[in-house]
Amino acid sequence: MYYTIGIAGHINHGKTSLTKALTNIDTDRLKVEKERNISIELGYAQFSLYGIEASIIDVPGHEKFIKKMIAGVAGIDLVILVVAADEGVMPQTREHIEILTLLGIVNGLIVVTKIDRVEPEFLNMVVEDINKVVKGSIFEEVETLFVDNIRKTGIDELKLSLHEKLIEIPQRISNGALRLPIDQVFTIHGHGVVVRGTIYEGVVNKGDTLIVLPQQCSVKAKEVQIHNCSKDKASAGQRVAINIGGALKQRKIKRGDVIVTSTNFTLSTMVDVSLNSVNHLQYPVKQRTPHPFLLWNNRILGIHCILRS
Q1: Dihedral through CA 109, CA 115, CA 120, CA 121, nearest 10?
Q2: Percent helix, strand, coil in the chain (nearest 5)?
Q3: Strand 258-260 and strand 304-306: pairing?
Q4: What is the largest CA-CA distance in the chain?
Q5: Could you read off the pLDDT of 91-122 as tens digits, one per residue?
Q6: Which candidate, 179, 170, 167, 181, places its Cα nearest to that of 204?
Q7: Could you tell me the pTM of the whole model?
Q8: 3-state secondary structure of 135
Q9: Do the Cβ atoms of 307 and 291 come closer than 8 Å?
Q10: CA 263 from centroid of its chain's CA atoms
Q11: Distance of alpha carbon 78 from alpha carbon 141, whole angstroms
Q12: What's the first-to-final CA gap in the chain, in angstroms?
């Protein structure tokens, strides 16, 4: 059983330290992240949980990195919304709730961190505030847990709750053609281009011929890795890195491109949109106003469009 868990929430609310408390892995790997004590890139950690193999994705909380946050949570099976007890609901808490709701993610938990920093009476006020904000969202009726990431208070209870939730979630489909949206691209000296992502459907085998869309270029899977371990194959639900060989250069592959194994996937330059606006818009949505939107895994999150009646 393979699942992907996302951890979202406001900056400095303890997402990365919660990931470390669960997995013993520090997902802040960049020097600038450690110096500034904030997550800039998506962080990943392997997570074994009572027979279930999962990947945890720690997404940036700062508003400047919201596109990276969307790239991280688009392929998850369950999300943990993190709220710090000493600050409560903050701007990116609200923004992440709206994004997760638009993505259609239905499985989640709320975790209140830094509980050692407040008195019980204040903690009750924080919970009341959270309950008001999550009303009408995917988090309205989910369980709320309380943890201290440093002392690991409440971590065992969180693991049990995660296990109970995950075993009820259907496995992703491993039959049929591979579909792997790319959320990271980089090069390794002596090896070439490496792409990363969560497999939505199908299986990728070492040596497979793959197609990169929308470029429609063929590449070969020279090596397949799951959390830095070489494998012969990876299946739906697993977080995978693929060292690809072919004529396609790194600069021609970008986050949001898709790797497939079938020519049955078609490209289109048109899309029908049913627009749902979120709360707290800075500017009103008016007729013929240009608006950028992001398209990820067939869900429009917000290319350049003009609204017409």
Answers
A1: -80
A2: 25, 35, 45
A3: unpaired
A4: 62
A5: 889 888 887 887 778 899 999 999 999 998 89
A6: 179
A7: 0.78
A8: coil
A9: yes
A10: 27
A11: 14
A12: 46
